[in-house]
Give the backbone structure.
Amino acid sequence: MVKGKDKIIKASGVIVHCKYDDLVDPAALRPHPENPNKHPPQQVSLLAELIGYYGWRWPVIVSRQSDFIVAGHCRVLSALEKAWDKVPVVYQNYSEDDELGFNMADNKIQEFSELDFTISADNTLKLDAKNFPLEMTSFPIPEIKRMMEWTPESPESLSQKIKNEKKYREEIESVKNIAEQVAEKIKLIRVKNLSKAIAIVIPKGQGRELFVLIDPSTKDVVAELKRYAKDGVESPLAELMASKVQL
């Protein structure tokens, strides 16, 4: 917390915990014209509530060279939404390239993190036991309810669950790749019915996938899939596919 001897610093009534160079009117700050990150109203409003609750934990970073905001665009928008007339600002030196690069990195790097559900659920239960307002974790209500219903699992079952989820993600990615390849190949076949066919890719594991092409007139896809499972029964489009395209 930033203090004098016994003085608590506030900006528009909000406690300032972070170090800063100056308290500035957010309306006077200049958004970077090349900032690629767009902030939807829901995010701006949620961050405004978080800042109001926790105080200012991060300042807005402004370039001394360009006078543009480099990091903290959403914080500025949140302050404007709340009609706060002061926000903490830090001024830093950047080369032209570094300024643009840091702006992009600051927006992108957070996307690489992954939340551990078990730890998040444990923390949620701990906070709830102390009557902490769980909406201040920024988790949506459905996710909070899911974590509140969580019960510990044995290390063995949890390990298997993680392996299954990883395998599922890999198979889904494989299905996407196969589906994209199939879509591109189907474009090469100038047959009216075939262009409207229903393409289904079923992962079988170990890098093997079953590609099924359903006649567009089929009303019961499950029944048609069962037909594939019977010996000697082929899709009415199978011969055409075999002759027109290599999958």
Q: What stands out?
A: Strands lie at 10-11, 14-15, 22-24, 60-63, 69-71, 87-92, 198-205, 208-214. The radius of gyration is 28 Å. The chain is about 45% helix and 15% strand. The first helix runs from residue 41 to 54.
